Amino acid sequence: MAFEKPVTRRSACALLGVGDASLCLGGFASATGCAKDDDVIRIGTLATEDMLPMWVAEQQDAFAARGLSVEIVVFQSATELIAGISSGAVELAMTDPMVTAAIHISGVDVKIEWITLGTTAAQGRFGIMVGPQSNITSLSQLAGVGIGVGSNTILEYIMDKLLISAGVDESRIVSVELQKLPVRYQAMMAGEVEAAALPGSLLALGLANGCRLIADDTQGENLSQSVMISRVDFSGTKEGEDKIALLKSVWNEAAAQINASSDRYRPLLVQKANLNESIADTYPVSEYPRCILPTNAMIDPVLSWMKKKKYIKSDVFISYDETTGRFALR
């Protein structure tokens, strides 16, 4: 569904609940740099393992080999990344289905292009961990216990799913709002929160520092996906469509190289994902999928969860089409 009203940088900040737009835009400007060159495709991301195939392609000049000019823009926070894709400063972004739906609802027509990690449960890792001093050993013991997490994030979704699957009543899931991952990790280490919902890199760091992993999402039901999304005002044109097709071929080639010889690309992963030196030699390099769209079986539960948590207003109805990657509002 297209929207006539453009989303400016200021309204992107409002979408994220940032009261002082100048603060949001200050960080945003520092990430994106100078004025845009229309020939350059800018891809926004956080410093995360999900982008490794694109970093491999960048290292090998694979974009230029296909006639593409690509800039990978690393943002320092999810807030800045959302502002970047919402304002049009980047044409594509690596994010998650929750963010994609929220951006679309805000009035920016975006679509999913492919899954970056998560075609199987083993790809990517999120979980719940307790600190070194904790006596908790099971999910059921976390009922009524405060868990550090960020609201309306893939980690909160995984946390809820893992706890409910273990028989914890939803009314006894206690979230402690800690949006910034380093702050959340340190709060768990210091015992300020009993547990924390964390991504794979911080789970590995915690294990190296005496923490206990209570559960993760690498077994059983495939709960989480990260995705590459595009602004439809870019990908919906013939030129944009052709460039996306070339980007997909670049991704597929780089993913195949990583999957065939993962240790070869560990140094690049350590550098780009800012992995702590204590886990740099042991952190597992994921298997990366070829470009495919997430299915409705993957996305619909996320939208239902967002609705139930009131992250989507009761009068807003959003649906996803697995054949196109598009969202629709009614």
Task: Give the helix/strand layout.
Layout lengths: L8 H7 L5 H12 L8 E5 L6 H8 L2 H4 L4 E5 L3 H10 L4 E4 L1 H10 L3 E8 L8 E5 L15 E4 L4 H12 L8 E4 L3 H9 L5 E5 H9 L3 E5 L9 E6 H4 L2 H23 L5 H7 L23 H13 L9 E4 L4 E4 L1
Parallel strand pairs: 1-2, 1-3, 6-7, 6-8
Antiparallel strand pairs: 3-10, 4-10, 5-8, 5-9, 11-12
Keywords:
39% helix, 12 strands, alpha/beta, 330 residues, disordered N terminus, 13 helices, 2 domains, 5-stranded mixed sheet, D-Maltodextrin-Binding Protein, domain 2
Helix fraction bin: 25-40%
Shape: globular
What is the straight-line distance between the termini? 9 Å
Query: What is the domain tally?
Result: 2
- Biggest sheet character: 5 strands, mixed
The named CATH superfamily of the largest domain: Periplasmic binding protein-like II
Determine the number of helices (DSSP H or I, runs of at least 4 residues).
13
- DSSP, total strands: 12
Major sheet strand order: 2-1-3-10-4
Beta-strand portion reads 15-25%
Assigned CATH class of the largest domain:
Alpha Beta
Question: What this model shows, in words?
Answer:
The chain is globular and about 55 Å long. With about 325 residues, it is an alpha/beta fold. The chain starts with 8 loop residues before the first helix and ends with a strand. It folds into 2 domains: about 10-120 and about 225-330, Periplasmic binding protein-like II (D-Maltodextrin-Binding Protein, domain 2, 3-Layer(aba) Sandwich); about 125-215, 3-Layer(aba) Sandwich (D-Maltodextrin-Binding Protein, domain 2). Helix 1 (about 10-15) crosses helix 2 (about 20-30), helix 2 (about 20-30) crosses helix 5 (about 80-85) and helix 3 (about 50-60) crosses helix 11 (about 240-260). The chain contains 13 helices and 12 strands. The strands form 3 sheets. A 5-stranded mixed sheet has the order 2-1-3-10-4, sandwiched between helices. Strands 7-6-8-5-9 form a 5-stranded mixed sheet, with helices on both faces. The longest helix has 23 residues, at about 240-260. The protein has helices at about 10-15, 20-30, 50-60, 60-65, 80-85, 95-105, 155-165, 180-190, 200-210, 230-235, 240-260, 265-270, 295-310; strands spanning about 40-45, 70-75, 90-95, 110-115, 125-130, 145-150, 175, 195-200, 210-215, 225-230, 320, 325-330.
